[in-house]
Structures are given as C-alpha cells and as structure tokens.
Amino acid sequence: MSDAVVPHRVEPGTPPARAGIGWLKRALDSDIFYSFRRSRMTMVAAAVTLLFFLLALFASQLAVQNPFDPAQLQLMNSRISPLWTADGQSPFLLGTDEQGRDVFSAILYGMRISLLVGVLGVIFAGALGITLGLVAGYVGGAVDGLIMRIADVQLTFPAILIALLVNGVAKSVFGNRLDAMSTLAVLVVAIGLSFWVQYARTVRGSVMVEKNKDYVAAAQLIGLPATKIIFRHVLPNTTGPILVIATINLALAIITEATLSFLGAGMPDTMPSLGTLIRIGNNYLFAGEWWIVAFPGIALAGLILSINLLGDWLRDALNPKLR
Amino acid sequence: MLAFTLRRALQAIGVMIAVGVIAFSMFRFAGDPVNQIVSLDTPAAEREAVRTSLGLDDPVPVQFARYFVNAAQFKFGVSYQFRQPVSNLLMERMPATLELAACATVFAMVFGILMGVYSALRRDTLLTKFFQAVSLIGISLPTFLIGILLIYLFSVTLGWLPSFGRGDVVRIGWWTTGLFTLSGLKALIMPSITLGLFQMTLIMRLVRAEMLEVLRTDYIRFARARGLTTRAIHFGHALKNTLVPVITVAGLQFGSVIAFAIITETVFQWPGMGLLFVQAVQNVDIPIMAAYLLMVSLIFVTINLVVDILYTIVDPRLRSTISRPA
Amino acid sequence: MTVPVLSVRNLEVEFLTRSSTLRAISGVSFDIAKGEVLGVVGESGAGKSVTGLAVIGLIDPPGRIARGEIYLSGMRIDHLPPEEIRRIRGKRIGMIFQDPLTSLNPLYRIGDQIVETIRTHMNLSESAARKRAIDLLAEVGIPAPEKRIDAYPHEFSGGMRQRVVIALAICAEPELIIADEPTTALDVSVQAQIISLIKRLGRDHGTAVMLVTHDMGVIAETSDRVAVMYSGRIAEIGPVQDVVQNPLHPYAKGLMGAIPTLAGEEKRLVQIPGSMPRLSAIPPGCSFNPRCAFAFDRCRVERPEPIRQGSHAVACHLYDEATETAA
Question: Does the model's ipTM exceed the 0.95 cut?
Fold first, then answer.
C-alpha cells in the first residue's frame, strides 16, 4: 500500500563520552532514545502498542469468559448494551453480542489472533524477502533479473488482491472446509507472499553496494565463504531499514488480515480475529446495537494507529537525512 | 520515443502473459473443474464425457493456448455459481466499478492536492495540523471501518444517504450510470469517499513533500530573486513542478483504486466487479477469480503504459533523453 | 560625492538554531558606486553569499538581519515589508546564482520565464515583452534568439543557460547586479566569456556589480575594488590593484600568495595553514589569530575594527597606532 521512505544508511550513534558506562547508559544517551523522549506522541504510541500486546498475551486471564467455548455462553445474556448505558449489566463491560458473547473478552481473544497473524505474516514476509534479496544481490545475473522482475510486477498489484487470490486458491485446493488453524496458516502465507517485495529490494540494494567494497574482496581473498560474508558483514548493515519496513508492514499486515476476515475470506466465526468481529457486528448496526461493531473497530484502529506512529518515528529517527 | 513506447508495450505484453499463466494455472489445477460442474453422484462415464467436452484431456500447452486465445477474446468460461458466461457477468458489473473508481479518484485528487498545497505553504497553522491528523487517520483506519463509520453516521443515525446499492441507474448502450439521477448521485457519495480517502491521504502527503522539495530548489530561489509575486511562484512555478510526479502517481494508483474497490463494494453492497470477485473467493468460483485477475491486470498494464507515455509528454526533459535505455 | 548605488553599514546576519545563535556575518560595511564592480572574495563559509542574499532580502528563517542598514541609492531597504522588497528584487537589483543548470525552471520555456519577469516589473504588453526578451537574449549573446526563445532550459548548454540567467537578471534594467559565484559551475573555457559579459553589461548600462566568488583570478580580472571576507567579517577592502599587489591583512597576504601568476614563476605558492573556524566555534579576539603567523596577545582577546590605511581599510591590530606605539 504505502511505499514507505526507507533510509538506506544508518548513521552510527555518537560515540559514548566516557568508556565503560555500560550498554544501558549508552542506549539512554543515544540519538534514537533522545528523539523518542522528545516526542510525547511516540511515547504514548509505544505504551498503547505494548498494552495491546499484553492484553492479547494475557487474554485468557483477563477475559470474563472464553468467547469461543459455546458452553460458557448463555443466550439470555445476548445483546446487552455496554455497562455505562441504561441497560448495561455486570460483568459485561462493553456489552454482548447476539450469542451472549462478552464483547470485551471477544476483543481480547480477537486481538490475539490479529496480532498472531500479523507478526507471523511479517516474519514470513521478512524471511522470504531477505532471502530472495540476498540471493538476487549476491548471485546477480539472470536470477537477479527474474526475482526483481517478479517484484516489479507484484508491486503494481495491491497486497490485498494478492492475499485474496492466494486465499481463494488455497480454499479451492484444500477444499472449502479448512479448520481454523489451517486458515490462520493460509493467511500468514497470503500476507507473506504479499509483502516480501520491499525487504527484497532493500536487502538487494545493500548487498549490491557492499559487494563491491574492499573488505568483501579482502574477505573473499582470505577464503571466507560467501554465506559468512553475507551474514556477518552485509546483513547487519540492513538492520535499520528492515526494522522500519517490518514495523510499518506489521500495521499493513494487521489491516490486510482484518480486511480479509471482514470480506469473509479470513478467520472463521469460530475463531474470530478483530476483522471477523467487525464483520459479525456490522450485521447488527442497523438494529442499533452499535457496540458489537464499534469496540472491535476502535481496538483495531487504535492498534494500527499506534504501530504506524511507532513506525513513522522509527523511520525518522533512523534516517540521518531528516535530522 | 517510438522505441521507448515499443519496449514498454512489449513489457506490458510480457506481464499479461505471466498473469495469464497464473490465471490458467488457477483455472486448471486449483480444484477439478469437472467437480464444479457435475453433481457428486454423476457416474464416471458421464464425468469423462464432460471432461472431454471441456477439452481437459488435451495436453496442457494446448489447453493453455486455448485458454489464452479465449481470454484474448474476453471468453473466460462459465461461472460455477451463476451458470452464466463470466464475461457477461463482468461486463454487466464493470460500469459500476469504473464509475465508483473515477469518482473516488476525482475526490482524492481535488482534496489531496488542496490539502497538500495548503499544508506545504502554511506549515504551522492549526488547519495544517488538522490535515495531518486526517492523513494519519486515513492511513491507519482500514477502509471497511471508514465505510461502516460513514454508514452509521449518515445512514443509520441521520438517514441522509443510502447505505447500499447504486440507486437508480440510467442505461446508455451497455453502460449503466448513476450520474444522472439524484438517488444515483446520493448513492455515490459515501462509497467514493470511503474508497478515495486512502488515495487522498497518499496524494496529500506526496503533494506536501514534493512541494516542500520544490520550494527548496534553486529555480524557486532564483524566481524569488527575480521578484516574481508569491502567487506566481507558489501556484505557477512550484505547483506545476509538483504536479508532474503527483499526476503520475495518481494515474498509477487508479489501478489500485479499482482493486481496492473490492472492499468498498462489499461494505456498500455496490454491484461492481469487486463484489463479484469477493463472492467468487468465498464460493471458490475459479473462472470468475481468474477472469477478474486478467481484467484488473489488463487495466493496470494499460494505465502504466499510458502514464509512461503521458509522462514523457508533460516533462520536456524526458522527450530528448528517452531513447536511452532505462 | 554622489550617493553610492549600494551602501551596507554594520550588517549583521544571524541564524537561530535549536541550541544557539550563529553569527554568519557581523560588522560588514561597504559601498558600491554606479558602474563599479566590487569583488567579494573568501573561502566557502566566509559569509560572501549570505551578504549577497541579505542585500536582496532573501535571508529566510531561521536566519535574520540582526543589525545594520542597507541602502539602495540612498533608500533604506533592509527593513522593508516583504511585498516592497519583492518589487525591488528583479527590478532594481538583479541576481545571478552559481548553478545555471538548476536556476531555471525546467518545465517552462525560457521565453516564458523572461516574459514573466519583464511583465512583473514593467508595464509592457505580452508582445512587447516578448520582443524585449528577444533583444535581451541577443544582448547576452544567444545566437538566433527569435528561435531559441521557445526552447526549454535543458536544450541549452551550461554556458548558454548562464547567459539566459543573466538576461533574466538584467531584464528590468537594475541598478545593481549581485552575481553569486556566476562562473564556478562552468567550464574554464566558458568562464572567461561569462565574466567579460558581466563586465560589459556593467559598463554599458552603468550597473553596479557585486561579484561574489572564491576565485581571486576572476576578481583580479573583473573588479574595480575587492573585499576580502573571513569568518563573516571583511578583513580587507580596497582598490583591486592595491589589494592584489600590496595586501595588508595577513589573511589577504596568504590569499594573494595563493594565486599563481605568470610573472612570478620563481615564487612558491604560499599555503595558509589550518582552516577557517566553524560558525559555532569562532575563537575570541581576531577570528584569524589561530592561523596567523603575526598574531600577538591582543589578537587573542580583542576583535580588530577596520582601520584606514591609504586606499585600503584593514581589520588587523598590526596596523593600529596604539599597537605600534605600544610595541
């Protein structure tokens, strides 16, 4: 979706004034931490992101019920409005849906799924993109041409379209009745296949630059194997840009998963993500039961907004040109 | 210039062949087409007859060639769900999608450029901060949430605008349009905003960044040293130089707008190609998926080609240097 | 004595940064008479360009004119509102920048850019302005101007583009031209042509010229008087012959020693040790003292003010009566 401006060079932090202060002190003195502390918005975003991750991690401890266990649901508790409204009932803080599911608990569990798919998708896309980028940059020639041509073509297509196609093909190959965990795996693959290009381009670029430097030639002369040169010398140089891409892509991956689920091509109702919850809730909007869709929507928007803010800050902080 | 156009055209054909291979593979290997046509208790002999009649016994290259020749004539087979030729379904739905995409793009361009220029020229005003907040929201809110929010506000709460469909449409030849009826226009408003908001954000950020970049250039400094009026510098020199890349990006984005319409069309039950595609994905209707992929690719490739050529017309520098290999 | 075209008095320009205020130039004073060419020379960062930009009112925030006065033909212009100084720019003061390749808007035909400037400052019809544009192009030496007027900047070579830039600078008959490194970005063979063009235009129209450059050779060839700048101050100013042949300030001496001359082949080129201090780290006293071979105690504590020495004015304690009697 958005083509993030990614720095290709990371300026080394200012050397510590005194030696032997320890890494923590050094980290606190660094430019990056300085710019972090200067931006209140970034600090709030970091706190919110952390909070969301913790909520997702401890979903089963924090929720009043397991919304996926039909035995715990009672139909008499259905469609209760949030606690602070006239019809609110304890313990359903954010109300319940038509099956008597507590919306707050559903959000915690849904967040867990959304974050899981997002993080795994980003890791998969990163692994795929970095590998292809390394291969393209190091081997060069026809292999490079092929990989980069595929990247070019793919970049003109929106990720959501590719993810939908991968999803549709998977469904048709494995049959329409995939269980929830397999669907999750398919989503991770679909997101991975949609977002690898940026990593590949960045890594390829750095490899091309580093490949021609003297130290690589020197390392080759003394007989260091190519893989060692790549992993010890070339890859560390790309950490900054990759971190920026990964953060921004985490937000995009979560949006993509939520969109697929909203379109009915993602997580099933039995194991809903935030997107699934919004799709379900959307059906009750006209009946005036706004809370079933509103709170998952707010949670999703807040999560993505915080991650985006973190990504923006990270990009600016790592980009020496903007300082 | 001619060599450049020709090379770009060849590249475009290459991309289309690649997409064609993917579409064919989906069509042929993702699930057995025969199963989709006959019922579960059909005897084996009858299945074979269907298989032969579909030409599925022929060697794969022959099948591919046949698929390709058919696709080039916009024959994409029969939809599993609707039992109708896919091309008819697509043609019927296409005007709705193109109309929506065009309105969304116009909306995105007009507001994106206005907001971008304003926030570049008045960097520290409250309105600029507001625009930047809007742009952050535009990038962070998933499209479907925006759609739901608009529906809740303007359909459910206020009752001003319809929440689904195209309203009354007028038929002109095979094209249908909602631009000439009040209900059609009303129905267009929310989907266009929903679809265009992300593009608007993108254009605004791009215009702002480009404009700030251009304002720092030597020729702007020289224009100021020549004593030109601020208005002439900002809206003559700076804006013209800003708009060249912006129009390119906006043009290239038109393809994405059509693809993103999938989401908007689902939220608003807009009877376009995107909604058809989503239903196809849900029901594993491979012929429609493959055909949609081909159609969208064709639109993408055509736009890319046109923008490339237009770009050389807008920017005089490129005209003379264009013969150099890229 | 007639009123000088440009008169700068005690000019001080500063830049506000996050942590401090940097003084780019301070205590700069000079005059340029009608038809006179003043060369301003110095290393990059000495404040030459900032002086030029200050005169034409193009110091942008975070920079500002902190002190001093600028007079154009007797009229004070440093504190004018933006719209009024805008009317002066291009009309009464023309400016030429360093890089002709980037000074012209690539998307507009050069004729349109000239006509636009003419019509901003002169009450002429479109066709009259176009005619004047063709005449101007001819005057700056563009061949076949009636054809070339409809060309885009990229269709010209660097030298030809600089001629177009000059045509733009003089299109409203300014009293003063500020040329900021007008030849630096050009080929050596083209430099001489551009220099003689500027010189000729100044002579023909009686225009005063402020020629900013780091190239002493260009100054020696073109200027009537020269101001040597160092670290935001004028170290020495005087008639070009006197300053070149008999520089007084130790820095100017070093600078003149650094010009290769055909006559003095046996003399070795002199190098000034060290480099100019950054704006954030200007030493107390005379800013040249760490590099100066003649520096004494006073130079390290007290900033020298310009002292008249014959036709020169020099900011150096070596020429101060008080020092001489004390020494």
Answer: no
